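Re: your question about Nucleoporin Pom152

S., sorry for the slow reply, the queue was backed up all week. Below is exactly what I fed in.
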Amino acid sequence: MEGTPRLRSAYPTSPVSSWGRVKPNEPATASRDSDHSGSRGTTSKLPVMPQTLKSSEEAHPPLIPFEVIDAPSQRLYVLAAYGGITAWRLYDFWKLMTDEADPLWLFMKWVLVDGAFLYGLPGLRIPWLEWSFSTITVLFILHALLDGLLMFRVPIPLQTWLAAGVKVLYDRELSISENRVKPADILHNASLILGKQIIHILPEGSAVLNPQQQSFCLGSGRNSVSLPIRINQTTPILMELLRFDLDAQHNETIKLSAGQLKTMKRQAEKKRAKNDQHGSLYLDFPVKKTGLYRLQKVVDESKLEVQRRHSDTLVVTCPKAFVRPTGLDKCKGQLSDFSLEVEGTPPLKIKYSRTVNKADRGFSFQSIQPENLVSPLIRQRTGGLLVPVNNVDASWARPHRISVPLNESLSTSGEWLYSIEEVHDACGNIANYTQEREEWESSTKGTHLEQLFRVHEKPKAALDGRDQQHPLRVAKGESAHFPIHLVSPYSTTSESTFTFTYLFTPAEKLQPDGEHSPEASMHEVRIQNGQQLSEIETPGLYSLRSISSQYCSGEVFEPTTFLLLNPPEPDLSITSDNIYDKCAGNPIGLLVDLDLIGTPPFTVLYEIQRTGEKQTQVRFERIDRLRGQIELRPQEAGHYTYHFREISDAVYKGQSLRSKNLVLEQDVKPPASAHFVGGPTRKQACIDEPASFEIRLQGESPWTLDYEVVHGGKRSKQKIKGIETDNFVITTDKLTDGGDYSVTLTSVTDKSGCKIGLAQEAKIQVRHQRPKAAFGQIEGKRGSLMLEGKRMGLPIRLAGEAPWTIKYRNTDSATPEIWEKSLSYSNDIIDITDQGTYEILDVRDAICPGSVDANARFFEVSWIPRPQVNVTETPAIARHGDIYVQNDVCEGDDDAIELLLQGTPPYHVKYDQRLTPQHGPASLTSRDFTAGLGVASIRMETMQPGIYEYKFNELSDYLYDHDPKKYQPLIVRQKVLEKPSAKFTNPGKTYKFCKEAEFGDDIIPITFSGAAPFSAEIRIKHHSNPKPEIINIANINSNHYEFRIPHRLLALGNHVVTVHKVRDSRGCQRITEQDAPYVQVIVADVPSISPLDSQADFCVGERISYTLSGTPPFGIFYNFEGLDRKATSGSTTFRRIAEKPGNFTIYAVTDGMHECKAKTQITRMIHGMPSVKISKGQESVIDIHEGGEAEIIFDFWGTPPFEFTYTRSTNAVKGRKSQVLETKHDISYEHTKVIRASEEGTYEVIAIKDRFCAFSTQRAEGRTGQKLLQ
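Result:
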């Protein structure tokens, strides 16, 4: 048992002491061999079973090892923890009952505690406590329900549940004989209806070959098939089958002996379902030859021939198909040109798929058959014979091989895959090539079932931008790629290599008309990965002839012919002329003529070197013609040298000219000039301020500069003489008018005395006014209110050009700080957070300083007051320091305080209500309310005595949220006085006496609590009078009082005495309307007993009930079966169940006072239950043939006439429930009745009724439906 694998939830193995264990290395039978060596000569050792699974402790060790704490101790600790949690839960429940705590919070708390404990318990892995997740979930739900019942104080009807549980576990009632009996044994007495009659109708046998018309074939790995033969209600001993050969026109008879049939039947019974023991049997007859099979004869055990249905079954060769392969590579637009070979019994159907670039499209041929085929399988087969009985010709079922050509255009490049999916023959046999080893098919789809084509695009080519009008120019001694362009893309990498051919004639051998000469040569070039493997360099005529890929010939588009030329190398020659100043006659530059040879456009590179400067200037000149001209005119005086270094044209690049020594030299003295630094400009200026411009002068100093200032149609001319520096600054006079000014340089004169006219002009835009700043208005004034601690934007009005920079301050600040801010809009704002008077000090826009409007430079900001709360002072409230004290109030009386709220409504107030009761811990409750006006009334809590303190700790209004730093809580305190109470010293006690007894006034002690003296109102209510009698008692100076009931107020029956009202000296009173403590005063009369049912006849199992009047307990005296008996009843109802028939008579009754005994005479007759038996109470089986009859005998016991109901049901089959077929009702006036039946089924009685009583097996009827028969 040590090696037995255990579940995690199983009990742990029992501990074994060390001396009783077998060592691991010793055989398990060693000790037993030594013990029994004397009694046995030899002992055989049992083989030791290997331990395949680890124990639970080894596979999942506990969280706390057993070496630290053993398993029983761990379970004990868990139980102790659960007990502690339960005690804690009950403590919270007791606090909830006394302190009125929040039940929702306690419920959520205990749901979390129970969930943590239960779901965490399996993690300890303690044996016996490793419960499953579903078990833990059920326990958690039960604990959650318990938490809800306890924390929400849902009343639990324990007494009702206990009574219901006892009723289920111990269902006993007192019978008339004063014994406890089970009512179910009396009401459900199965011996009252006994017996059943079973009738079988014997069926006729049959045999059918292949009843489901299945398809069978041989081949493709299948050597034999089993033909099903269905037999029904017969045991055959001889069977003959005919086989017609499909190839040779002959037949053979196959006989199955009794032994073969017995073996086949035994195998069929093993396969039959357990719940179908009486159904048909299917015999499997194996065949290994193709042919047409027909069931000819069947003989059963009675030597009679069994009825059979004529039908033929074909066993043919299994269908198959394959692809007749062809080439792999095709060109786009070619035909597929291949065929599918199909073999089987026609007509055949083949299903194949065509996948083009992984896009699947299925095709199928529905009917494939040879010409002139005549076959019964062409028409729809519904069973029966395929060929006539006397003329058997099955040659149409022979297999045929048919070729199906597939010849379609391959219109899309890429991979085309044709794949055979299924082949169907005429009999319904299917060869499925898409599933591996499905049923009998063992082969999978292979290469003989697929045809793959790789369809390639045809290449297309043309010349790339070249023809006879646009030759390919190549420098001498250099080569170029053949200008071929592939027009269409290619889809496969194998087509990255192409071959094209071209015809070539050298330039010297061209025909006079420019065409190829007869000696033209053909050349072949390969293109691989988009790059040519050879280049061309010889001048001449080239013509593209063909293009082809590895698999396909292509197409060549125009243009196809071009010329390759070697143009002449570029060359340059120059001539130059001096350019003179017209005034001074000095040279100021060169005019150079360029004569070029080559292929335009040309690029000429030349260098400029000034004497005295180390740096050389490099210039490029582009010329688009064979002749050009450039002008070399330096800006500064000096000796200049020009070197022409290189020339390039459209074909040759970087041809050196150094060998030609093309050099030009000149001394240059440029004329005087002047211009604004940076070019003509446009400035903005402030009004009443000058404007300045920087001038750059050229020529020989000194210079004289003339300029003029134009504004408003007026022109002011200015002249400056003796300027010695190249850079000079001119400054205008103050610009006193706003608008546009123009400063124009008119002329300049240098040392030579030549006056040079100028046209340089600059613009000045002068502002018409200076920028201004002012505070804007809010609602017509420069002042506003804001929320304390919030941000506010003050409106600023600005004039000028953005952006503006303003300086402002808060004049009310203790340390005035000047702020500076940049503004971008003419109507902008500045953000502030403090109250005070704000002043704008200065303003400046993007260009000029400005001014501040004296009437709008100040803006005043004030805070909106925060909300406040106070108590309305009345004579009922007094202030003691920071606490308001409200007058004392009695428990349950209404009281309220009035609060005064200041601020912006609505107001939201939160306060804490703290109760310090006379007994028990204090409690705290948070409340809040919203007030729409400045006055709010708060209802004071008075439901429980104690000292109440109301602390208003949060206040907010429409504008301000609560701020604890700026709010002083308001506290109101009040004492609630406990109500006085009065209760009976012995509550619930019943005071009894008889009506005839003459007792004096009875005394009922009452206990008061509160401040004496007390006054009380006591009510005495009789059960028959809705209006109670009221007694007022005043000046009760003690807490204990003896109340005497006046006898005149007592009448016959029950009286309830309650204390309705009590008042003490403090003015507090308690009025009890419901559930008040009470005592009962019962004035009893002579007891009596009355039957609840008026009937005199009862049945066994029925309950006889009586009502009693008087004071319980009652004593009932009665006679049954000739014996006097006594019963006791603790209530006003006496009921007994009738367990057996007899005469039941009650003759006396007493009540609890035992003063008198009332005589009576109530008699009831108890009748026995009727009974019935079929077939003498036994289960009888009768077999009859179709049309026969059987007798069913019914025997009755009871008082006639008898009414009975019986049913006919299906005969019982193992594993299947019997079903009722029909229900009949009949009457018998005798104790025996015979009924004839001819239908199969099980007959049994379900209900019986005699003159007095009835019984049914379907349900316990009792008195329901019992009606005396007349």
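The longest strand covers residues 755-766. DSSP finds eight helices and 91 strands in the chain.

Happy to talk it through on Thursday.
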